[in-house]
Design a protein that fits this description.
heterotrimer; A alpha/beta (367); B alpha/beta (324); C mainly beta (82); A: 367 residues; alpha/beta; Rossmann fold; six-stranded parallel sheet; two-stranded antiparallel sheet; 42% helix; globular; C: mainly beta; four-stranded antiparallel sheet
Chain lengths: 367, 324, 82
Amino acid sequence: MLTVIEADGTAPGYDPGLSKAELVHVYRTMLLTRAFDDTCIKLQRSGQIGFSIPNRGIEATSVGSASAFRKDDWFFPSYRDFGIPLYHGVEPVDMMHNMYGNALDTSKGRQMPVHFSFTEPIRLVSISSPIGTHIIQAVGAAYAFQQRGEDRICMASFGDGGTSSLGFHSALNFAGVWKSPVVFLCQNNGYAISCPSSKQTASESYAIKGEAYGVPGVKVDGNDVFAVRQAMTEAAERARSGGGPTLVECVTFRMGGHSTADDPSKYVPAEEMEAWAKRDPIEILERALLKSKVLTKKKMEALKEEVASEVQAASKVAASTPAPALEQVFTDVYEEIPTHIRRQGAQAFDLAKRKGDASAGDGEFPL
Amino acid sequence: MANITLIKAVNEGLRTAMQSDPTVLCFGEDVGPKGGVFLATENLTSEFGEERCFDTPLSEDGIVGSAIGMAMNGLRPVAEIQFQDFIFPAFDQIVSEAAKMRYRSGGQYTVPMVIRTPYGGGIRGGLYHSQSGEAYFCHTPGLKVVIPSTPYDAKGLLIASIQDPDPVLFLEPKALYRAVKGEVPGGEYTVPLSTTRTVREGQDVTVFCYGAMVPVAEKAAAQAAEKGIDVHIVDLRTLLPLDEDGVLEAAKRTGRVVVVHEAPRFCGYGSEISALIAENAIEYMEAPVKRVTGFDTPFPNTLEHHYMPDDRRVLDAIEEVHQF
Amino acid sequence: MTIEYELPDIGEGVVEGEVYRWLVSSGDAVLEAQPVVEVMTDFVTVEIPSPATGTMGEQRAAAGDLVPVGQVLFTIEEQPAT
């Protein structure tokens, strides 16, 4: 398994290929990911949002991966990848709008929280709930790049459980045959909800699964952001230069449950949780940054406060944004609104008006 | 007798079936030690062991496909699909294989299995934790489709489904899992498939419904009563094969029919009820059949309360057919 | 200003929660987001955070009580930020 940062914080012979400012951006994004995650959990517990997916512990895998890609690549993330949009400049407030499902949500309040969709500043393809469906779609999107002769690539991120899905199988198989410019990121956090890897697969690793499809695989310490970055950068370069796909397995751990409706203490042994707590990806990077004198402890604390305020402010803006307009139930089913849907929209507005619902306006379907 | 929730009744049904028949087993994602994401299979692994209640890899086609093989070879599998929204990778196995095996093999191979899955909206689950896909499966000869709405029916219909010689899709209304409580006998009992249940006797308007729409219809009927309209409510319970005689009798009783389902309107189950009545009881009808349904859009999250039929929409329909 | 905190829907279709234990007492000073009570549902035991900075007011249920979703669980006497 590839690791880079040693216990004392040194990274012998390693060049992250980043300027000091970029390194700080990596660190700050990991802090921002954690702050966003912590805040979402508090919001869910206090009833302000309905649901969230814990990201604590995944920061190095998500952010380290994101840092290996360009802003004009396409991203097909899982729902446990907050660090990917945050690294490439998606504003926390825009992610919060989705968490609240309000009128400024890019998905118009249609999806559950954490199922983001963005076209700028990056193409972050609308996240689905069924597992693995997006992986093969990434291969298709990559085919379009190949056909147009562009050097843009796609990345698809999924968990250990995702490798059991039909989408994984189709994706790896097609990508191998097509030599697709795709990087497959397997976030191996050891559990698919409560199902441990021992019940998920008999394969000796997730990385080696690529071999069956003619796709090289590499296994990486997912809590070491430099190791993640190194493996993902190599994979991205291979894809970009026509060398085809790679399967990168990042070994990490989710310190929270599967979701806010899941209690991991029911299936994760306490010793396992404690062992991983000692490998906090943020602390690992901090040791490296302190050792190489990129940041001081004081500056780190200041950054922590800064991201906490940023996320707080974002959640307040999202909280005070109203719900989507009623007509948004009926738009985007097709490009044009067919007669039968328009009729139902009219019925909905008429009923809302008779109920005295303010969202009904004058009771007429407005589109 | 115990007063328990619908989810506990499911758990009891599974336990009872597993106790009386050693060939019954439960499997799916997270159903083992965790007991399922809704706790439907709670404690079954500790009571019966991992050979009879266990976790599978994340693979709906694998879950259903392997269940078919088990059923053909002498076991009685009860496979869980975590949310009905996730069933589609298994659609091929269900529709092409489980439903057609008896027919295509001339009866040599049969598939006595149950697929249990939570369906329907009401828990802010958005597009992929709220779907009501019963219509896809009711369009599949060879399959049975069962939907309980009470704890008593949940246990009784589940045991009957497990004992049924044909593949049954058992759709559990997740909105009612913990919201509905009722008296459930201990021990083994069955509720026969393909029978409807009269929820409320009435003379003026008949409402056909199932799943989480049953309490909605009851609420609307109570409000209708205050307006002098006496509503007859029928819980369909088994959508396929349907108790057609029971439906026609209840339709003829009042001549004014409302059908309620969360699923989208176009080609929804209500269309079948409408056609059945139009073909067989038109001379008894005093009004066209009115359907109260989800919209013909995907299921939205924030605006869920506008999408799902509520008592107000059902009452509107009751009044409309009553006044026709 | 008195804020009434209603038990929200904190899980998938959860209709009630059991008060596991209070982390503060009536009259204690509390900060916004500080956990004030642990509530058990069928799925998870959650720490409910205070909606505001101020003083814990009435605790409307005791440890072991079942509280339906939507019922007021406690009140906070809000203090303006200093």
